[in-house]
Amino acid sequence: MINDPLTVITLIPILVSLALLILPKLSPSAEGLARASRAISMGVSLGMLAITTMIFFGEIGNVDWSNYNSGYYLTNDSIALIPSIGVHWKVGADALSFPMIWLTTLLIPISMLVEWDAKKGHLFHPLILMMEGALIGVFVSLDMFVFYAFWELTLVPMFFLIMIWGGEDRKYASMKFFIYTFTASVIMLIGILVMYLYTPDVASSGSVTGHSFDMSVMISSTEFIPSEGLRHLVWLLLLIGFATKMPSVPVHTWLPDAHVQAPTAGSMLLAGVMLKMGAYGFLRIAVAAFPESTVVFIPLLIFLGMASLFYGAWVCMGQTNLKRMVAYSSVSHMGLIFLGIATMQPLGIAGALFMMFAHGIISPLLFAVAGAFKHHYHTLEIGSMRGIAHHSPWLSAHMMLGWMASLGLPLLAGFVAEVTILIAFWMSFGWLVLLPTLTLIITAVYYLTSMQKTIFESNDPHHGILPDTLHGEEPRDITWHENAGMIILGALTILFGILPFIFWDMMSEWSSGFLLETLVQAMQSEGVKP
Amino acid sequence: MGDNKSESGLLVYIIPFLAVVPFLYAMGWESHDASILIVAVPFMTFPVILIVGQVYNGEEFWKSKMKEGGILALGALGASLSAALWLVYDYVDSLPNFDEQQSVTQWLEWVSFDLLQSDYTLTSGSKILGMGVWIDSITLMILFVATFLCFLICWFSLGYMNTDPINEDRNHRFYGEFVLFALGMFGMVLADNFLWLFIFWEVMGLCSYLLIGFYYWKDSAAYASKKAFLTTRVGDVFLMIGLFILYDIYGSLEFSVIFHDPSLNGSVNSDKLFWALLMMFIGAVGKSAQFPLHVWLPDAMEGPTPVSALIHAATMVNAGLYLVARMVPFVDVGHHGVAGLEDLGLIVAYVGGITAFMAAAIAFVQNDIKKVLAYSTMSQLAYIFTGLGSALWFYNNDEHHAAAVVFGSSMFHLFNHAMAKGMLFMASGSVIHEVHHAHDHLHHGHGDGHGHDFDPQDMRNMGGLASKMPVTATAMMFGSMSIIGIPLIGGFWSKEGIIAETWLAALEHEPLMYGPAILVLLTAGMTGFYMSRMWFMTFAGVPKSEVVEHVHEETPWIKMPLVVLTVITAFGGFAFALLGATDYLSSAYDYSGHLKLHKSTLLDSILYKLEYAFLPEKINLRIVGWVTIFLSFIVGPILAARIHGGKLSDGESSTPFVSWLVSTSSKFGKQDVSSLSESELSVALQNRLYFDDLYEGVLARTVIPFSQFTAWFDRNVIDGLVKQIERRSVSGSVQVRRLTTGSARDYILMATVGMLSIIALLWGMNT
Predict the structure, then answer these.
(1) Would you put residue B451 in left (φ > 0), alpha (ψ -120 to 50) or beta?
(2) CA-based nearest distance B34→chain A, Å
(3) Pick from A180, A425, A530: which is nearest to B120 by CB?
(4) For chain A (length 530 residues), average pLDDT per consecutive 10?
(5) Chain-chain contact of A226 with B109 (C-beta, under 8 angstroms)
(6) What are phi and psi for residue B232, nearest 5 degrees?
(7) Is the ipTM of this complex over 0.95?
(8) Chain B CA closest to residue A311
(9) Contact flag A433-B111 (C-beta cutoff 8 Å)
(10) Could you give the CA distance from residue A45 to residue B617 in angstroms, rounded to a whole number?
(11) Which of A249, A346, A529 sits opposite B115 (nearest CB)?
């Protein structure tokens, strides 16, 4: 197991974080560990980043990503965990998951860095480390049971992050976050269990139930579900689980509350990676297992995508809280992922994958900026301050870059995803593209207005108008560690905007293979023209 | 403020930048390989300026030796200029033949992908959206204009920006964004496909936004920058849709693929293509500030004056024109174009005609010197749109000769206008700067309250500056003459062609063309009036405030660009016209070379041009030409002189030409127009014909309430529903608790019911 890097990057963070959280409680002699836990967490997360980066440079050129069925990067055979019900430890990464894994290992140290001075750091940083293991586990596991276990495990550290380090209303927000997404996951679990019950008999491998949670078996065996109605039903159950996580209108309202109350690092991870779990699971399980249902429900996907995108943008514009606005903008942008998948073109699906990645580096930047406002100006109310650019030039610069990236400015990462999805969307649906495209104007309006009302216009070149919440304190710019984190994110946004092919090529190849091997047949049988 | 001599020593720091191109040449590079430097050097410089400027803000070396980044910016732009000149030198006489032209060099493969075709197979070979370089005569001309003006205006900024105390410790932002803008403009001109044209187009939009908002603390600047970004964004979104449609039709956005056969052997649906081009044109309308998306440009004058000169007059606003010029192959029925797109030409011409007339009318009543120039910019760009509209119309009707003439004239007008307007803005900047400086000087020691009610941009505070600022007065005079179209100077050579050919279309082919034709003809006279008015108000007559007495032309760095551009404006238009600039520029789409516009010898060419300018063969064109000259040269300026002209104070004098003009201006009598300026029309014009009020009113009444409603809806209806469920389930759980009766019989009942339902479910699944 030790020579399998994916297993290592999944388990090491969890084990280390458990050690850091529990050992100091057990023996007083381990108190030194508590003091060092911040540095240890950072060191471990940087090690994980180094490993994933090395995998990227070492392996990426040798893999044919378009071969969907064997494109997994696997280093060992599966290990039986609970053989009686067919649960195995089986991990792998392909072009759908690898960018997400790398993104996770990247965002963890950055979010630790941004909140380097968090209170109760001996708990805070290990919790984030645990988050890393859980998130990577979701993306690497190829066993549905393990997948679900990690899926729920991500809730635990996030729950505590909101509960302990959150804002004034943290209890309500953390409970809502937990119960809401947990309910959706349970609905998804029902779908998974139905799929499980229809897997072919593998009793010979020691499974008492005769079924297996092996993802490849479950997905390829969907024809064992005889009734079309039941297939659609399972697809819808899965959709509810995944759409809530993404989140899509109308099951999105947990997100703004969770974001507004969450600490900066929590928000960054929530928006950066956790939301992508929804889109990832949707493609990995729902679309892959039920291509026909996906094709049948294309109108539903378009409706959900359009609703999230368009409605989300309008709601953004009506917000007066900076972090709430940014949270709703995530809802809006996630809508594009559904639209990209609905195009049934490799271009659109690759665009959706790139959106997952691009949004994963842009939205943490947005939340880091919003968090810095909260941290240094003690308010998130748009319009309670003016001319902040004078006092916090770095913060304002990061705000400008992040906001511009999020509204889809070319040469920044978000644009690549937007333009490819929309080109594919036009090719499939023609003038329907007007709505998502016009939404880009609304997006620009709310972002620009929020900047105008915070960093611009104090009418005094030497002073900004400071919020009351500062109580006469001297306004400051962001700290060095906040700045460092934001600079890294900003630089990556520019890098992937100019050189998107670093990840785009594998995503594009994967999308072509995925489409050919799963969806094309369904499209033909359902009579959907490309 | 150091003296000029010691500061010019700073130029030594730009030598390493300028050495790059010669070094590469010595290394055996080709000019098209080095073309990437035109974009790459600014790209590497701008973050350095921004970050170093922020970190070392206020340090002595950075401030006095680097001019807060200005020297680095100048160096980077110098490197771009030298690489561009190399490219121009290499290609100016040996343009690739249109039909054989491929992208000269490929820089970047951006994204590659497959497409699912209608037979459910993937396209063979990945489609690629990448960045390469396309070179033809238009590219070379605009590239030269952009690199040259960027360099000169950056030079000017060293004097203009760094001597104003309000900019102290902020200039690195100005220079960083300036260089980023330059990158966008150069990239847009070089791009070999519509997608990258759009990408760089947006980069320019960003810089325009950032630089208009340079004085971020001013309400007006913050508002204007937002307005500019959003208004152009509306156009950009439509441009994007246009690109989607184009991609759908051709499966590519590269010029070399599309232009090879835009009709795809006659299989292209002209309606679909019309929509694509119309959508793209809306983008051009936004970027070039044409009616009805024109409202942002006058407000954009909130930015520092060098920005107005560069972005909002000389370069970025030309992007829309450039885009429309790239539409010619689609409609050129003489060369695989698609027939039936005349309407596009008409629409373009009408938008141009209406904007030209409207902007000129509004310019009549502006008192802010920069606003006059802003409206003049709109009006002149509209001329070019009218010309391009006629060109598109002619190309689509296979009138190849007329099309080539008006297309070449339009492109040449772009050149003339960019040079003249860049200079006019710099000159106005010089005026504002010195008046402001004089005002500060005069009121120094009066305490803090000074300067709040004095507007250094208001021409009503000026007058008589000709003797105080002779260089600026001369520069501005030639610039105005070029814009007006005084015979033999700059814009005359191009404007005549546009007006005459638009009239030709109206007289001989399409009666609907009378609209734009009449509008541009009237505008010619109006241009004569408002430009003369601006010049006379500023430079002629006696000073209208005591500040003027203290004005001196002394700021370093400012004069050189003015002098260079004065020379180009005064003689360049003439020289280039006689050398056949219009023919050269239209040769971009002269595929077969059958036009034979190039005369055999230089002398023939010169004689032909002179004859064509004043005595074209067709009698009605001759009449149009002379009417234009009469209106713009005689009527407009004399009316302006009667209202605003006048002698300088006794004993004051200026350069000979300027002195002559000032004294002439006093000889037409004096007319009082104060009653006219209070008329309803005048008030409406002063309020910009209420377009801004209209847009704002509509948006404030619809967008904001609707967004507030959706936010309310989300919080109270969608989330309210969730909260309802939550409340119900809390009370429901109380009910559930009652079920735990403790009686075994109840539990067995419940277990049975549960079991039965599971069995029923499984049974239902299996059937």
Answers:
(1) left
(2) 19
(3) A530
(4) 76 90 75 80 93 81 70 68 82 88 94 89 89 93 90 91 88 88 90 85 68 79 76 92 90 90 93 93 91 91 94 91 92 93 92 95 95 90 88 92 93 93 92 92 92 88 85 86 94 94 89 87 82
(5) no
(6) -70, -30
(7) no
(8) B710
(9) no
(10) 80
(11) A346
